[in-house]
Specification:
The structure holds 2 protein chains of 2 kinds.
Chain A: E1 20-22, E2 25-27, H1 39-52, H2 57-66, H3 79-98, H4 100-104, H5 113-138, H6 144-152, H7 169-190, H8 196-224, H9 228-247, H10 259-264, H11 272-290, E3 300-302, E4 307-309, H12 315-325, H13 329-342, H14 344-356
Antiparallel strand pairs in A: 1-2, 3-4
Helix pairs in contact in A: 3-5, 5-8, 7-8, 7-9, 7-11, 8-9
Chain B: E1 8-14, E2 22-28, H1 32-43, E3 51-56, H2 68-76
Classes of the chains: A mainly alpha, B alpha+beta.
Chain lengths: ~375, ~100
């Protein structure tokens, strides 16, 4: 053991046999009868024990995934796992932030004081969700500035759904019901994602999202059981949002380049098509209750698979919107860029004030 | 805070894989390594955790209990942030 050379007085020698290997996993020493040993020493001993037994960090990573354990920021992880997470979590964060825009459009025109405070609270939540996710992405070693820059230059993507306009108040209802409903379905799955900080952000977000979907459905019930004109508004909104919502789950599994790794690494636990099917199964009865018609002539209950058969959304349109050619892409990107630029003086003033008070931005230890 | 015992550290324990790190108490130690070892010996003698964080107490910024009322007041009158505020017909499932 070379590490013995680096021992300091007071360090306690741990017998190597106290590290045992069980089916590819390392078990830490089970009991210490010591008060203090050098952590550095323990680490180096562990590492050399790994080397002696030809264990590599990839095995440990894989065994954690196999045991349904979670990966934490300081754990070793493959570069591609890290890259995949940075891409997915930051896209998720961007979607929350850009998602504030279509609904924000209706804050000043909400039809009652009640609906206005509700919408304000919802948009505020979306901002909060963006912040949970940005900080989760930052645990992977990427900075907030880099993430925002990728959004503002159009390099990073966000959910295609937010590039569609909100034409009437019914659209606010349809977004809460359908778009938040689809987001919840995806996020419930992501609560068990293999990356600890992402999983924990999802737990918080899911708790908060529940009100979003319910307020949307409440708006839809008011309209659907209101005057014929109101019911027509609700139907029009369903017609406009149905297929863009179906696209939120991503391309069909056979055309989804990132799905295989995401499932292998347990970042996602269900595929795009599985989630889309479940969404249709849950949502169709909710539309029927409202007396509204899902805009899909092929929609039929399939007894054998205990689920609906349905039409795929237009995947050419999906690609177009993702690539910047949706109805509102330019508007959304400009709004984000303007907001960032217009906020520059606030960031500068805050930094200057902290400097004047003698507090650096890094908390003094 | 720093006397003959060394500075104070706050200890956070992760009980099970994936769960949040929860504050469980504090201790004295002279450096990071000692803080981590002491935290293990003091707070996880019965397998209470599988990971630990130690943070210098001086880095903690806390709200003050006497300001609790006005500090958290903004959330008090916003019942509409809770899902139960909304009327959903009993027949509707999965919401």
């Amino acid at each position: 053991m070379n590490d013995r050379d680096s021992m300091k007085p007071g360090d306690l020698l741990l017998p190597v046999k106290s590290f045992c290997r069980l089916s590819g996993q390392i078990i830490a020493p089970l009991s210490f009868e010591i008060h203090a040993f050098s952590v550095k020493f323990a680490y180096s001993l562990t590492r050399s024990a790994y080397m002696e037994q030809n264990i590599n960090f990839e095995d440990i990573f894989e065994s954690k995934l196999a045991k349904n354990d979670f990966i934490e920021p300081k754990d070793w992880m493959p570069d591609n796992y890290r890259k995949h997470l940075i891409r997915q979590i930051s896209q998720h964060a961007h979607s929350e932030i850009v998602g504030m825009l279509p609904e924000g459009n209706w804050i000043t025109r909400a039809p009652s004081l009640r609906s206005k405070i509700v919408l304000l609270a919802k948009v505020q939540d979306e901002g909060g969700h963006g912040l949970y996710l940005y900080t989760a992405a930052e645990t992977l070693g990427v900075s907030r500035d880099e993430l925002l820059d990728a959004l503002h230059t159009g390099k990073a993507k966000y959910s295609s759904i937010f590039n569609y306009p909100t034409l009437t108040w019914a659209d606010v209802g349809a977004i809460g019901w359908l778009v938040d409903g689809a987001a919840i379905m995806n996020q419930v799955m992501l609560q068990r994602s293999s990356y600890g900080p992402y999983s924990r952000a999802m737990v918080r977000i899911c708790k908060e999202e529940s009100f979003h979907q319910r307020q949307g459905y409440e708006i839809m019930t008011h309209l659907a059981f209101g005057t014929p004109e109101q019911k027509q508004m609700a139907q029009d909104a369903l017609n406009r949002w149905w297929y863009p919502t179906m696209m939120m789950f991503g391309p069909p599994d056979k055309d989804s380049p990132n799905s295989e790794n995401a499932i292998k690494w347990r970042i996602k636990r269900e595929t795009n098509d599985q989630l889309r099917q479940r969404f249709v199964n849950q949502t169709v009865p909710q539309a029927e209750y409202l007396g509204l018609t899902v805009p899909d002539e092929k929609l039929t209950w399939n007894e054998a698979k205990q689920g609906y058969d349905f039409s795929e959304p237009d995947w050419v349109e999906f690609k177009n919107v993702i690539n910047g050619n949706g109805p509102c892409n330019k508007q959304r990107l400009k709004a984000r860029n303007d907001a960032h630029k217009n906020g520059a003086w606030v960031r500068e003033a805050a930094a200057a004030y902290a400097k004047k008070k003698g507090e650096s931005t890094a908390v003094a230890a | 805070m720093s006397d003959s015992q060394g500075p104070v550290w706050e200890v956070f324990v992760q009980r099970k894989s994936g769960q949040p790190f929860v504050h469980c108490g504090s201790l004295h130690a002279f450096d990071k390594e000692m803080a981590l070892q002491n935290a293990r010996d003091l707070y996880t003698r019965r397998g209470e955790g599988m990971a630990l964080w130690v943070v210098p107490s001086s880095a903690i910024v806390a709200s003050s209990p006497e300001d609790m009322g006005p500090f958290f007041e903004p959330a008090n009158d916003k019942v509409y942030r809770h899902p139960t505020f909304y009327q959903i017909p009993d027949a509707i499932k999965h919401m």
